[in-house]
Amino acid sequence: MESLNTSAQINAPQAAILLFGATGDLARRKLYPALYQLYRQKKLHPSFFVFGMARRPMDDETYRALVAESLENPDEQFLRHCYYQSLDVERLEDYERLQRRLLDLEASAGTAGNRLFYLSIAPDHFEPLAHHLKESGLVETAGFRRLVIEKPFGYDLPSAEKLNRALCQVFQESEIFRIDHYLGKTMVQNIEVIRFANSIFEPIWNNRYIAGIQVTASESIGVEERAGYYDRFGALRDMVQNHLLQMVAMVAMEPPSRLETEAIRDEKVKVLNALRVLSGAEIDHALVRGQYVRGIVDGEIRRAYREEDGVDPRSTTETYVAAKIYVDNFRFAHVPFFVRTGKRLRQKITEIVVQFKDVPWNLYVKKSGRLEPNRLIIRIQPDEGIHLWLNTKQGGDRLRIAPVDMEVSRFTGIGFNSPEAYELLLYDALIGDSTNFTRWDEVAASWAWIDPIAKRFKEKGEDGLKFYPAGSMGPELADLLLSKEGLHWWEGTQA
Ligand code: NAP
After folding, report:
1. Which cellular component appears as one GO term in the record (predicted)?
2. In this predicted model, what pLDDT tens digit does every residue of 255-278 receive, in sequence order?
3. Which of 8, 37, 108, 122 has the most CB atoms within 10 Å of its CB?
């Protein structure tokens, strides 16, 4: 199945990939494997090199060994494209040294001065880094210069604005690629294709036929190594502000007039601007905030969030959020969107569930009782696929109606043999396609919606924080959000 992005046919230009944070977790787990896959698929131009930077001193050979460690069956040819220099992002003289070495490498590799700066480094460094890139002259180059920047993009709207102003002094908006790695997931890119390339959904994709929409992004892992960051940000900022609101935007957006980057982003930002802003007690009614306590996940006892290394034992940071959201426009007026995300939940799953309204008159009520509603499920991970639940007559019994799952997934042969999100996104950044990155106005609109909620959470502290056992699906109160609307969270087949 094709994705909205037709970039697969475009050849990536020659480029120097300048990676800040080259020894970090993200670089090792995601970026090197993604670059290697692109290399193996010949999606990288033969004239490319990866230039890693971090503070610790290392020569090229040691760096190549570090890169090789993160790859399956590493190829010596690929590793020869990798170079390293020790650099402290706060020290201007290190950038000047970098500039000198880069000019030599660019001349020998023939990368035409195209520079992709990838910031895989703690967010506190983003602003000084951009400033030093300018001061050292690194952004003055004969080819393109692009900035790929990891999340989080700010802590709230004012800090995001400040960061954006700093970046815009160095790069144009069209040169800034803000990563939301959910947008690199094949099934997230598929939302638009499912909606806009199939005539059966679009006519009923509105408040006349849809009863409610659920977006779930649950994780079974805890905070792992990232407690310092997480305890400051919490689930609302870490997941809802970016990934969940982006998925809501893609489900709710109008069809763009053209399949062009800005036309698509224009439609998404309209949705984000139409989110009903909540305040005060409205927030208490529409959101559930939870934190995990001890419990069992996958048969193992897991400690409470407050017992995790690096977490304040009195922390009131939420590790779970559920929210009822309204998109106040013609298409979706009065349709509740329920989003939820959390750590240490029963299972890792990301999916979108579109629940359609009941048939106007149930002919089968006497024999079968209540009919299950039709549901379209877009499973983003794991087992990515599309499921459509329909009511059908069961064999044998004359009028027994039961829901069946019409499943389209890789197991049924149609197959989405998806590349990793970072593979798609790195490739898009190299070819200059920013469709699957967030534009500044999308980020600003998301923070504008989040800020009053984050403020309320902070004011309330422990008051209203619901504790849930690790291994559950979150606080029970989250069920009430839906049952008030006559709905319930989709937990797989109800048959
Ligand atoms: P990390 O493991 O802590 O790595 C940080 C990197 O930055 C290391 O290479 C470190 O190497 C380098 N560094 C630290 N201070 C530096 C300085 N002053 N000058 C130059 N280099 C410096 O972080 P990470 O988990 O990879 O995360 C990187 C970015 O990706 C962050 O913005 C994070 O929010 C984002 N992100 C990460 C994940 C993930 O799964 N890890 C997911 C989503 C987003 P030295 O100590 O040798 O300098």
Report:
1. cytosol
2. 999 999 999 999 999 999 999 999
3. 37
Rg from Cα positions in the chain:
24
Q: Quick one: average pLDDT of 279-306?
A: 95
Please tell me whether residues 139 and 259 are part of one structural domain: no
Residue 6 confidence (pLDDT) above 60: no
Whether 140 contacts 171, CB under 8 Å: no
Which one-letter DSSP state was computed for residue 335?
P
Pocket test for ligand 1, best of 86, 92, 120, 133 (most atoms within 8 A of CB): 120
Whole-angstrom distance, CA of residue 23 vs CA of residue 56:
9
Whether residues 201 and 301 fall in one domain: yes
pLDDT at 369 over 90: no
Q: Measured between alpha carbons, how far is 230 from 334 in angstroms, rounded to an integer?
A: 33
Domain that holds residue 38: 15-150
- The strand pairing partners of 218, in sequence order, are 342, 349
Q: How far apart are CA 185 and CA 216, in angstroms?
A: 15
Q: Is residue 32 part of a domain?
A: yes
Q: Is the pLDDT of residue 322 over 50?
A: yes
One domain, residues 281 and 323: yes
Nearest CA to ligand 1 atom 22: 54
